[in-house]
Amino acid sequence: MHVVTTGERRRRFKRAESFKSEAAWSRAGRMRMIERDLDVLEAVARHRFLDTRQIAALFTCDCPKLPQLVRRAGEMVSVPVKQHHDGCAADGDALVRSEKHVAARLLELYHDGFLDRPVTQLQLRIKDGVIEKGSVPMVYNITRDGLSVIGSARRDRLGSARMSWAAKNIETGRTFIEHTLAVADVDIAVTLAVRRQKSLERLSEADLRGDKNKTDSSVSRAFTLRPRLQKNEDLAVECDLAFGLGHPPTRKAFRYLVEVDTGSMPVRRPRRPADGRAPASSVDLKRTSVMRKVVGYAKAYEQELHKSVLGWQAFRVLIVTTSAARVENCRHEIAAELGSSRVRKLFLMTTLEDVRRGLLEARIVDVDGNQVSLAP
User: Fold this and answer.
1) The predicted structure's pLDDT at residue 364
2) Which of 130, 155, 177, 350 could form a disulfide with 364 if both were Cys (CB 3.0 to 4.6 A apart)?
């Protein structure tokens, strides 16, 4: 296992000198992988990008029954755990108590070439042309070596689309990374909510896709809906995330399609006819906007595509945006566009900050401003 010197640590985006070639790796010997390392690599591959805060949320818990990892003879050793409190996952052996251990392990996975740190993430610190001071979470993505080491079973779970991400991550920009991390925040919030609320379970991707979408090229594409607008025109809407929450005692299950709005596109783009006048209730469906997706989901629901394409009896759309003010803006725009139609009940809104604090505790409102819960 490689030990990184203090001088090398300062180079946050350059690996240790002793690991420049495969031959050097073979001579020095890479870190000894434990099951938790493979879990971390799979999680990063699944989301494409994760930062240290998100990885720590997935793999740490303050349960007093969880042991601290200890290093013995150069290896990380953990005592098996048989019982945890209600906040722990069922597979509690995958959790540790200290975020420092997670950070240290990520450092080793990076310097051994299993994870990468995209340099583009430096742009995330620039707000309104000013570089923010202070510590920010490091963003990681998986490498080809990371994909090769996790095993065929895990790679099969990831699907072919995610397997190709390792080669494309270097080309991504700030907006894409920022959006991907926000989607991961929502997905992790669902995982943590089910972990804490033992009466709930998360529906698997296979359960969500149903028999009609067993072949998976991309998880989000499996939930793409194409409502017909005119005779030879349709509007494709592809969600950022799909999840379902089930309640086994009552056999109830709610399904959600998630749209994460990071503020990079407007809430509405009005359609402008040839005479230059913009109707107040018309949306430009040729250009991206939050309302373009709202119209798409509303049309899909009216045409019952959720039944014919997804095999769902019902669903709702959760819009996660940047601020309470933007939630109100979305709420008013949706109300103006859909009027008194029953389709308006389809849409729920909340902020990303609320979701990060806890999905089941978040303030989630419908178009009428009523607070609702996502749990069945």
Assistant:
1) 97
2) 350
Ordered by start, the domain boundaries in the chain are 6-170, 181-372
* Tokens encoding 294: 């709202």
Question: Could you say which residues of the chain have pLDDT below 70?
Answer: 1-11, 16-31, 62-97, 125-134, 159-171, 210-221, 272-281
Alpha carbon distance 107, 187 (integer Å):
24
Alpha-carbon span 2 to 376, nearest angstrom? 48
Tokens 């509405």: give the residue.
268
Distances (CA, A) of 282 to 191, 232, 338: 38, 20, 11
What 3-state DSSP class applies to 226? coil
Give residue 270's pLDDT. 84
Nearest partner of 367 among 280, 343, 359, judged by Cα: 343
User: For the segment 318-342, what is each residue's pLDDT rounded down to a tens digit?
Assistant: 999 999 999 999 999 999 999 888 9
Spell out the residues 6+ positions from residue 113 whose beta carbon is closer than 8 angstroms to its own.
15, 19, 25, 30, 143, 145, 146
Q: Where is 139: in which H helix or E strand?
A: strand 139-142
Strands 252-260 and 316-321: parallel
